Amino acid sequence: MSKILIIEDEAAIRRVLVKILSEENDAYKVEEAEDGLVGIDKIKKEDYDLVLCDIKMPKMDGVEVLEAVKKLKPEIPMVMISGHGDLDTAVNTMRLGAFDYISKPPDLNRLLNTVRIALDRKELVVENKMLKKKVSKNYQMIGESAAIGRIKEMINKVAPTDARVLVTGPNGTGKELVAHWLHQKSERSKGSMIEVNCAAIPSELIESELFGHVKGAFTSANKDRAGKFEAANGGTIFLDEIGDMSLSAQAKVLRALQESRIQRVGSDKDIKVNVRVIAATNKDLKKEIAEGNFREDLYHRLAVILIEVPALNDRREDIPLLVDYFANKISQEQGNSKKSFSDKAIKLLQDYDWTGNIRELRNVVERLIILGGKEVSESDVKSFASK
């Protein structure tokens, strides 16, 4: 049932609005407030799906109510009720965040249509918030080991800043999870996080992928195309496996970091970008610098903050939590009830040599859930874990 609050000092207008809304839809629960102060008090105590608010009222006018609600519960759509002389103010309230306004006396069709659209919008906002929470759950960092605790602590300190971060560690350890946490806990979380796997893009295409190109820049450049840096403007770009980037591309990334400007391939026009850069690699970049494969100046630009993600073999105490997390996630994906693992099965998994780290553990857990018994046993692990 949608809860609607009417804030209006004229009792006659309140009665009309309540009657119209109540008769139109029995799924509307309509409440009243005779002035702005009473309305704000109700909003503090209750959750409403929509507020209809008069502009001219004693004690607290509609503009003040609107500003207060936007601070208290910004997701509530506000529809302002304006008299003939309040139209300029009503238009101004739209700039302050009001969903819409209706004039007195209210036109029946206009009122009902506005209410329906506002409630649909509120429902969409709630759905989007739930979806974002689900997306965030895909990047949970599972573990209570001292190593993971240090990483989480570092993320909490660094995320609110714009400091560049270099994440290191073996393949399959979850370096991308660190990058997502840094983005989601930052002021840039409303912007995009654009991921680029530098190892997966041919060296002759990496510059076009990162910085875009103009029509005719090369044979297959049939039209202008924006690159990943432009797509990440206002947000974060995650350069995964940056140790595999070509030296020429490294030079352009260095310029982008130094000047906050890029040039599309084939163009001499500068484009300003406001991007936070997070990079990751499984390589020893200092060794790559010594061998002439990586620019030392770029390394120092990227490695303002260094976060090293440990191998799974160095955090075996987290394996029971990880197994439980993956078992739950996999059972949900497959639509089956969750399988439990015996203590001896868990112990065997803790003793296993995880050269593939978290990624390998996830695959083994899925295999055991599919092929193992009702409870995954020690013998199941011996039979299937090493295959």
From the structure above, extract its key features.
387 residues, Rossmann fold, 16 helices, alpha/beta, 3 domains, 47% helix, Helicase, Ruva Protein, domain 3, extended
Notes on the structure:
It is extended, with a radius of gyration of 28 Å. The protein folds into 3 domains: 2-135, Response regulator (Rossmann fold); 158-310, Rossmann fold (3-Layer(aba) Sandwich); 313-384, Helicase, Ruva Protein, domain 3, CATH 1.10.8.60. It has a 5-stranded parallel sheet, sandwiched between helices. Strands 7-8-11-6-12 form a 5-stranded parallel sheet. Strands 9-10 form a two-stranded antiparallel sheet. It has helices at 11-24, 36-45, 62-72, 87-95, 108-137, 146-158, 175-184, 203-211, 228-231, 247-259, 285-290, 296-302, 319-334, 343-351, 357-371, 378-384, and strands at 2-7, 28-33, 50-54, 78-82, 100-103, 165-168, 193-197, 236-240, 261-263, 270-272, 276-281, 305-308, 340-341, 375-376. It has 387 residues and is α/β, with parallel strands linked by helices.
